[in-house]
């Protein structure tokens, strides 16, 4: 908590000086607000102030003065208020929350552990909670939970590469795509392959492609590493899009089989899940089952990553993030270490991709754009590099947040019936991200827990932990 | 060669480092584009010795270090590391001719370091190093730093990770042994109470000691230290001397680059002096400190007056002894290579050193 230490006021300073300080602070706030207002005026004149309409015989320019002045006013007062109440203070935005959390951690020593357990129990019972409490909307809730859980798993997978090994990977969606297409193609070309057979194969293929990506980027650092991984993600997508004979190109692949429960399908009639257990058919069963599959997959990812972290390979990943040259001087083969990080991270991406294919029943290259990579990376960064529980929080905020913003119907009461909240979804979402990054620059959980201790494990502050290549 | 002359003048027949070397560097040349950093350098590091590589700034000491530890590929030359006693000349020639990187026979082994990548030099040949600007894993605890150093053994014990994921007892045993070894070196370096603190939080002197402890956790045959006493106060350098001597007693040979003459002269069994990438002296502390070429390289001048940094002069006088300088002053330089231009260069080097210290 770097900001906490700044929270001490210089005691006993003369009242006059502080009054003058206060005055100049207000003056400065006004001055800066005016500058911002001028900037907004200049920038938004064409974007907001001018509107073109189709008129007979060409375009007609119409001025929207009210909209322009509104934008300027928002800029002016926004900056003024920020200056007066946020920036000017010598306490950081996060310090009070940080101090509060510090007190809380003192009061409840194993807070993190208990939070984790509560999360786990809640996640394990979630479909039943949803069915019991919200009988009308249970399908929608479980669907969103499945989505969040998928991103949690992807975040944990990417966390191995970015958070632990410190290798910035902007093309992670490629492995998601490899996993999804592996299952889709295998099930198209070979009838006997179902979800459970395809799952390990998809993971293996994705791991293989992780190594294929790993080799060319072994010696790259920083921005170069980021660019090549970004290009790799695009290459996979473009190949899927253009190899029409094999992948179906932009049409994608449909009719991907649904997962079965030990051979029992989720449908009506003979030999189905409901028939076998003698319960009345309900379409929700399939969703609950899908939820438990991704829950299980995510759990495996979690346990394996936690285990890996305290094994030599995991420590080597973290050491690689801290200092690659020192690693080599200690006899660590950095090539293999990087490749295992890429391969294992990619493998979990492949598992998740295969699950995505079976859930949708349809895959097409459109699902694997750079935007997906960016969202997964944003989850990892927002959660705190290297932190498992942080990624869960970030997924809930990001994915759950986007979904929750779809239900902004109440805003029409404020802004009138013409207001379409769905249009402002991304704007609100972007603002929320900016606020979170200002409040917690190193993510929700920025401290690092040591993997081994002689006496007691002391968490390591974010200022000491390196971020690796490309940050 | 001056080196041989000085050895002969010291009265020894064949010095120990020629008889039982752990490392020999032969005709090492390192060229960076047009710059010749090291030129045809040959020396030996004796088994169980503390060997110091000294010389003015820019003499090529760190370049030699980087060649030995594989961070640079030398342009020419052979660097042979030996496990087991004796010169093993036959084995060295056999490996050189065969195109292999190394060969082990029983307790003997020869490793040609110029052919090996850096991580293999640490892992196979048993050469560990520290860095001039400390390179610790700052966000990891002191104990974790020492466990990372034991990576290769632990990876094998964890069944290449597969066994470790399932928590096999053999791995858990190996890990607790690794912790025991780490604790041993933490006690040696007096860092035991800091074991659970992040390495980046330690004060400078402790970070230096931790880097040595980390290097020792790789079980090296040869420990290479790049300016271990830089930035230490007198008490800390005294502790460093004791630590290095205890490392030698535990059977590890030490090769160090050092500017602190107090450290060098007190603990070194063998000193090699470089200037402008060329060896100018080689011998025990006594023979090196009286070697006129060394004094010329370090002082760069014939008179004391020209030294404008008094504390450096004091350092040098303390190190080489007052007699040597006054002896030298009246008579002209014996070696024509120590010309005025070179002398000016080395005096600049030495005053830079004074500034840094």
From TrEMBL, chain A:
Annotated High-affinity branched-chain amino acid transport system permease LivHM N-terminal domain residues: 29-124
Major localization listed first in the record, in broad terms: membrane
Membrane topology: Multi-pass membrane protein
Regions that span the bilayer: 33-55, 67-87, 114-134, 146-167, 173-192, 199-218, 224-244, 289-308, 339-362, 374-402, 422-439
InterPro entries in UniProt: ABC_transp_permease, LivHM_N, LivM-like
Localization, UniProt: Cell membrane
Record keywords, A-Z: Cell membrane, Membrane, Transmembrane, Transmembrane helix
NCBIfam families, A to Z: PRK11301.1 (NF008450)
Name of this protein: High-affinity branched-chain amino acid ABC transporter permease LivM
Gene that encodes the chain: livM
